């Protein structure tokens, strides 16, 4: 029982820090969070394989000595803009409860939009498709198309004749 209690207390002192810009370093995380208390551990996560190997994953964990320090850091740093992005900061123990409440969040979002969940999915998809079509249309009109122009057979005969001429 005591081991579970110690693990729970440890999680109460540990913060999840997400939505980090990829230019943020470990030392900058420590500098940002050290004014709120003594940091006992910091885990900055990196991609370990694949095409992004060696790049930051965009989140980290910061652990304080007390719950109060962690709570203060959470209150002060959650939503703070860093490199133009709002940081997401919450207790690591809250992470699993936030994931399980995603259905609650979907219901809340559905109430805000005023539609049913299924219908809003289709309108979101339709809006995305329309946006892509508009983007393609504007690229084609602006001459920024990445397609190569088709060769006209009439133009090829002129090129062939020129290539056979001796200079």
Automatic annotation (TrEMBL):
Outline the segment boundaries, as ranges, of region: Disordered. Answer: 94-124, 139-167
Q: Which GO terms describe its molecular function?
A: RNA binding
Task: Classify the source by domain of life.
Answer: Eukaryota
PROSITE patterns, A to Z: RRM
Q: Which SUPFAM superfamilies match?
A: RNA-binding domain, RBD
InterPro entries listed in its UniProt record? Nucleotide-bd_a/b_plait_sf, RBD_domain_sf, RRM_dom
| All copies of domain RRM, residue ranges | 13-94
Alphabetic keyword roster: RNA-binding
Q: What is this protein called?
A: RRM domain-containing protein
Which lineage is the organism of this entry classified under, starting from the top rank? Answer: Eukaryota, Viridiplantae, Streptophyta, Embryophyta, Tracheophyta
């Amino acid at each position: 029982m005591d081991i579970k209690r110690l693990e729970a207390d440890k999680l109460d002192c540990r913060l999840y820090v997400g939505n980090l810009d990829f230019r943020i370093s470990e030392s900058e995380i420590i500098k940002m969070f050290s004014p709120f208390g003594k940091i006992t551990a910091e885990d900055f996560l990196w991609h370990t394989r694949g095409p992004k190997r060696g790049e930051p994953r965009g989140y980290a964990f910061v652990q304080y000595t007390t719950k109060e320090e962690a709570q203060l850091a959470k209150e002060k740093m959650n939503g703070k803009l860093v490199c133009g992005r709002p940081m997401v900061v919450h207790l690591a123990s809250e992470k699993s409860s936030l994931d399980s409440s995603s259905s609650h969040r979907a219901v809340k979002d559905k109430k805000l939009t005023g539609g049913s969940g299924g219908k809003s999915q289709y309108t979101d998809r339709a809006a995305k498709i329309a946006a892509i079509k508009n983007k393609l249309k504007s690229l084609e009109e602006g001459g920024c198309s990445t397609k190569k122009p088709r060769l006209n057979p009439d133009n090829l005969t002129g090129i062939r004749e020129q290539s056979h001429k001796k200079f």
